[in-house]
Amino acid sequence: MGDRVAHIHVNDNNIDIGRDCMLPGKGKMDYKKLNDYLRQIDYKGEWIIEVYRQDFTNINELVESGKFLDQYIV
Q1: What is the predicted pLDDT for the residue at 74?
Q2: What number of other Cβ atoms are within 10 A of residue 7's Cβ?
Q3: Is 33 helix (H, G, I), strand (E, B) or coil?
Q4: Alpha-carbon distance 35 to 30, whole Å?
Q5: What global pTM score does this model have?
Q6: What does DSSP assign to residue 57?
Q7: 72 neighbors 39 (Cβ within 8 angstroms)
Q8: Element (H, E) at 47
Q9: What are phi and psi of 63, to 5 degrees?
Q10: 11 pLDDT band (50/70/90 cuts)?
């Protein structure tokens, strides 16, 4: 897709424990590698946290996940 990416939906995963939809920062996703690629294609769009209701227990977890992603977003 390259420079045609308009926005990305992000979540995390940890195959070791069988989880494929976790809050960003709670699994093993390499967000630095993802961000490095997005910089290469000059991505300027939004990062959207996309998880299901059962993947967090309170709003503070979403806030913390957003703060975690802040370190990668240009």
Answers
A1: 60
A2: 10
A3: helix
A4: 9
A5: 0.84
A6: S
A7: no
A8: strand 46-49
A9: -60, -45
A10: very high
